[in-house]
Amino acid sequence: MRKIGIVGGTGIENPDTLKGFETKIIETPYGKALCNIGEMSGNLVAFLSRHGVDHSVAPHMINYRANIWALKSLGITEVFATSATGSLNPDMKAGHFVVCDQLMDFTKNRISTFYDNPIRGVAHADFTNPYCETLRQKAIAILKKTDITFHEKGCYVCTDGPRFETAAEVRAYAMLGGDVIGMTNAQEAALAREAELCYTNVAIVTNMGAGISPTPLSHKEVVEAMAQSIKNMEKLILGFIGYNKKVKDICLCKHCMKDFGGFKLYPEKE
């Protein structure tokens, strides 16, 4: 049995999908996290809405540590995340999916580590490849069997928000090699790596970035574009959950913190 965490407001969390699932509030040292837990395709699955069940938590206010800690405490080993993004790349258009392989973090005021106290001590996680290559290849294999337009690689740029970016910022991020831009992925990916979880993100392009788009950006535009892509994302997520074939394990995620004694939920002070 695989143990899979699904993170994001994808629209898949509907009553039909979650029949037989149990809603649990997970207590963590960082606060509470809400998960819907059940079985699908013979696997344990935990759905976690990063913005809360009613999308009431702004990206800069999300309790990323509580969310990742909660998934780890449930025994999750694979995390599939999805996020709505703007495009910095003219080839990545609204409705396209991007299986991200790189990340740039331009957030300023967020906590991105569990290792910030005397008990855990100081640790430095390798983040050369921020997304699990094993899970990336699974997602790509599933997408190749669909009619969804997707890109096998893409660099995710993460900003604080909640405002959209300026045209100058978009130009700068694109010049640096960014492909899509959002407000949630940097902390999730970094914390998942420290927690020795395999983590991948498939971005949904909802709009072109500021200055690239011929019209001013609006939240309504993002919501409407996301709604059009929900069925495709549901198809991908169900495919990912049901992809129980043996695959070559080509990542080091599960052993990332071995030089620091491995990640423990409740470390003891020595």
UniProtKB/TrEMBL annotation:
Superkingdom to which the source organism belongs: Bacteria
A single GO cellular-component term on record: cytosol
InterPro entries cross-referenced by the UniProt entry: MTAP, Nucleoside_phosphorylase_d, Nucleoside_phosphorylase_sf, Purine_phosphorylase-2_CS
Keyword presence, Isomerase: no
GO MF annotations in UniProt: S-methyl-5-thioadenosine phosphorylase activity
Binding site residues for substrate: M183
Keyword Glycosyltransferase recorded: yes
Cited CDD domains: MTAP_SsMTAPII_like_MTIP
Annotated EC: 2.4.2.1
Its job: Purine nucleoside phosphorylase involved in purine salvage.
Family annotation (NCBIfam families): MTAP, PRK09136.1
Record's miscellaneous remark: Although this enzyme belongs to the family of MTA phosphorylases based on sequence homology, it lacks several conserved amino acids in the substrate binding pocket that confer specificity towards MTA.
Family: Belongs to the PNP/MTAP phosphorylase family. MTAP subfamily.
Name of the protein this chain belongs to: Purine nucleoside phosphorylase
Organism: Succiniclasticum ruminis DSM 9236
Lineage: Bacteria, Bacillati, Bacillota, Negativicutes, Acidaminococcales
